[in-house]
Amino acid sequence: MSELERLKRKLAREKEARKEAERILEEKSLELFQANQELVTIRDNQEAELRRQIIEIKDRERVYRNLVENATDLIYSCDTEGRITYANGMMLRFSGYTEEELIGSNFRRFVAEKYRKRVNGFYKFQLQEKLQSTYTEFPVINAEGKEVWLGQTVDLSISEGGIFNVLARDISDRKRVEKSLMLSEEKYRSIIENMELGLLEVDRNGKIIKAYPKFSKLTGYTNKELVGKDAASYFLSKEEEERMKIRNQERLEGDSEVYEVKLQKKGGGEVWVLVSGAPYYNENGVIMGSVGIHLDISFQKNLEEELRAAKAIAERSLEAKDLFLANISHEIRTPLNAIIGISELMLNSVPTPTQRKYLETIMASGDNLLCLINEILDLLKIQSGKLERVKEPTDLSEVMEHIHRSFSVIGRKKGLSVNFIDGLIPNRNYLLDATRLKEVLFNLIGNAVKFTEVGSITLEIELISSTKEFDVYSFEVADTGVGIPEEDIEKVFNIFEQASNTNTSSENGTGLGLAIANGIIENMGGELKVSSELGVGSKFRFNLSFERTNLPVEDRSSSNIGGPKSLEGYRILVVEDAEVNRFLVNTILGNWGCVIVEAINGKEAVELLKTEEFDLILMDIRMPIMNGIEASKIIRNELNLTKVPIIALTANAIQGETEKCKEAGMNDYLSKPFSQDDFYKILTKYLLAEPIIPFKNKLKSGINRKGIDSITRGDEVFQKRMVNLFVEETKLNIESFYKAITEKNEDQLKTIAHTMKAAAAHICTNDIVVIVRSIEMDDFTFEDRKNRALELIPLLEAVIIELNQAFSN
Amino acid sequence: MKGVIFTEFLEMVEKEFGDEILEEVIEESGLDGIYTSIGMYPKSDLLKMVSALSKRTKKEVSNIFQFFGLYLLESFTILYPSIFANTDTLFDFLEKAKELIRTEVRKIYPEAKLPNFETKRIDDKKFEIIYYSDLDLGELALGLIQGCLKQFKNEGQVKMTRITENDLAVNFLIKLD
What we know:
The complex is a heterodimer of chains A (809) and B (177). Chain A has 809 residues and is an alpha+beta fold. In chain A, the strands form four sheets. In chain A, strands 11, 12, 13, 14, 15, 16 and 17 form a seven-stranded mixed sheet that branches. A five-stranded antiparallel sheet of chain A has the order 2-1-5-4-3, with helices on both faces. The longest helix of chain A has 68 residues, at 3-70. Chain A is elongated, with a radius of gyration of 57 Å. Chain B has 177 residues and is an alpha+beta fold. Chain B folds into two domains: 3-59, no CATH class; 80-176, H-NOX domain (Alpha-Beta Complex), CATH 3.90.1520.10. In chain B, helix 4 crosses helix 6 (138-151). At the A-B interface, helix 1 of A face helix 2 of B.
């Protein structure tokens, strides 16, 4: 290859290379241009963004400045020397300076004089320690020269040589509240600490948190000695501690309580306190413990103790009075017994008319005296609440008739008519104390007779309402006597008070009658009411409720007995220390033909009984050496003489005496003084083999067993059905009888009797059937039919009970 | 690879071996031999031309590369005197070289790949360079470093150690006298 050729090639390569370089340059220029264009766009965008941001920042700055300017807090800045460099509007208003005046002045000038040093030190410390933020409170003097409390937050900005940016708020109100709170707390604390009340705070476990000075004074322990100690074990006895545990539990359940407790004092000694215990709560309502307020009540406690002792003495003397009265009554009744008894004996011995008159006077006086003593004893019982009530099945109409009978005689003697109006007393028995009821009516009627000179006495009884188990009766005793002045009505029940205008000096009477009647009625659940018109008369009314019973009346009377039967040959041991009484008893018993052996005390009686047999023992209770109770116990338990009847002779009507007799194994008692009649009744009750039993009790059975069997031919199912039918029908018939009686419907009574006649003939005994038939009888009046019906009803009721018992299984 | 490498290579061949050999190398390597210093060209072009030169002159490829490195460094001092200005010592220059190369390479081709190496001044006399390259141009780099010594008038040895087998990382330890 020639040199020329090589040059040509080289030139061609150079030319190509140049063209390529130009092309590259062209390309790169374009790239550069485009890159520039992009840069311009970017720059424009950035400028716009920058402008927008500047506006935004300015806006925000304006908002913030407004906030700061219009803030109700004081906002200002200081340099490290305390010179104010900025202050918001609030600060200007607060300080009372213009901006020009304020800027450059030192904030310390506002701080209240006595706080300046502290505030200065506080901010020096912040600067020194470079604390970013602090808060403190101090008073400043505002434009009006008033002291104002500020709560000031200060941010320290380290840049630009240190700037305090301050946010301060007027906290005067809060300070005032705090101060008044403190004062009020101080006030109540001082009240509490100066009161005579010992405060003790304990935690949930009963550990003492604080003992206030008065409590310390009360117990002798200082607060220091008590804090942290267990209150209960420090102050209480063992048993009190147990009770306190329960109380603390109640405190934890939020219950308050007031109680009395005895505290042990330091160094011995006790103090009674009244404690008001209440739980206390924290701010979340959780019980933190309890506070006890202790009031020293030792003085009151001592007084109470003295009062209690005085009361015990009073009660003892009251008991002594009762005992004295009981004893006195015994002492009086024993001779009285002899006086009345022997008068009675003498009357039986055919005296001359003069002697008889004397004897009758003696007996009447004796009776009056006895009556007085009995009344005093009754009153004693009523007043001491020891009135015994013996409820026994009782026929009310019988009681009423007895009363009527008794007073008819008494009234007639005085020329008065004694009327008895019984509305309707169903022929049924009640559980009641007939003796007490009689006593009430005797007193009321006796009183009426006493104060009535002309006219009549009316006793009225009426069934006023019924429930399933009870009947309520109203009783009224009306007289046509002198009447009671209005002002004295209230007094009539007072003991020993009688209507003042009545000329009763001639009348016998204790003045206790109405008081006793009133007491008994109250005891029986009623209320005695009086109405009276001067010169017209008085009315005494009361209602009593009686419980029905199906039990028969126990016959205690032997009034059916014609006259004294011979008790000839019965060996009777009379144990009695009083000779006069022995004589009286012996005389009476001798009249009846008894063989009498005497013993003058229990011991003698026991000795006698070891060798001799007796049919009956009459035993006095109060005797020297060995009393009747003791002797009876020995006779029953040691001598094993269980069958011989022992009758107590007692002058003591005091409750408990009869129980003691029964406990000792005695059969019955006879209250001294006793009438021959009473004496006879009780002797026949225990000596005669077959005591007289009234008609009602003799009825063994009301059922005609044969009749039932014959009609049913032993078919038990049929029997039961028939009996049930009869029972249901009979119950209805009884109701119908009552209705017919109340309505005085004679025809209805006949119809009922007619309807039940056939069934009764099959099921009941003949004597019942006879009564049923008699109700229908032609020539009977309504009264006759009514009485028959009333007689029939209890019999039918008994039959129902009997049938139910016999055919229930 | 930057066009200046190619234009300088062709110039070195022409200067050192004459224009006849230049034409033969271009012909032998099957290339058109048209390069401009502002263009970018494939590395394979250089390898083909070096291989053709080695064949024609019976010289080792590695020697050619090392020699070209020395030549190239000298050309740079003329072409880009600014990069050597304000730099007094060899080690200072080597520490700044990476940044200088980056500017030169990327001023026209922002995406171009850069030679990657780390420098470590051990003491006043010792300096270490670790060169990472997938171009297998260790000898070229050695020539360039030797050229630098010469440029800053330093006497000393440059010891080249291949860290990995395929020459992807090469260690140069410079010890000045």
